[in-house]
Amino acid sequence: METWSADWLEPGECYGKVYCERDWKWDTRGRPFADWDLWYVWSGAGELERCGEVRSVGPGSCYLLRPGDETRGAHDPARPLTVSYIHFRIAPPEGSAAHLDGPIRYEVEERAAFEGDLTRYVEAMDAGRRSEARLLLGLLLLQLRRETSQPQEEPAPRPERSRSLARTMREVMRYVRQFPSAPHSVETLADRARLSPRYFSRRFRAYSGQTVEAFVIGVRIARAEQLLRHYGMNVSETAAALGYSNVYYFSRQFKRYRGVAPSALRAR
């Protein structure tokens, strides 16, 4: 059972956000942590080994490393990591014992809120506002706890959060319509929305009534119809313009969505 208070948190002097160098590595084997470290990935791809367990890390990955932990990390030089790190201690008052249980690793779903608090933490520490930083660190830890305690039946978002999510979904949909030929995926669009892929997929479907994949295909097919009807492009040109490497696959997909082959539409 967890027992802790934000008042017990002691922010350390080691904190920040950094774009890791091409040849970056992280190796604390033989030199275990003396304090806690909240370590979060904003972007990039790599892997982290903690006490012998190796896991891939990417946008939204977060570790709450404990005193005594040993780590070894590396990244893809072509996709270097950008990370935040916050070292801290827990100092309960005399006669009290602190327990900060839960997982070591998390995948943050609502990344925008989490990253906002990370940014504000650095600003507060830089300005010497340690009391504010302590409260922000407490909020970050509470959000991590929520990540592991989601009920089976997910509650509806609060009204203000629901409006924010709706704006996010509308922006993503406008972006897809603006760039129909781009190689959109759940992962890239979730990253744009600053949400985890799983959470983004659920919220997108709840908002639009269709999956991300179905929406992207529908936008491409609608654009293909415009190019065929109004811009004088033939089927091969249209398929290539919209990122299809196989014109036959494009034709089958178009017919499935429109009920007619694109060549028949072009001939009208």
TrEMBL record:
Keywords: Activator, DNA-binding, Transcription, Transcription regulation. Residues 170-268 form the HTH araC/xylS-type domain. InterPro entries: AraC-bd (IPR003313), AraC_XylS_family_regulators (IPR050204), Homeodomain-like_sf (IPR009057), HTH-like (IPR037923), HTH_AraC (IPR018060), HTH_AraC-typ_CS (IPR018062), Tscrpt_reg_AraC-type_HTH (IPR020449). PROSITE patterns: HTH_ARAC_FAMILY_1 (PS00041), HTH_ARAC_FAMILY_2 (PS01124). The keyword Cytoplasm does not apply. It comes from the Bacteria. The keyword Transcription regulation applies. GO terms for molecular function: DNA-binding transcription factor activity; sequence-specific DNA binding. This is Helix-turn-helix transcriptional regulator. It comes from Paenibacillus sabuli.
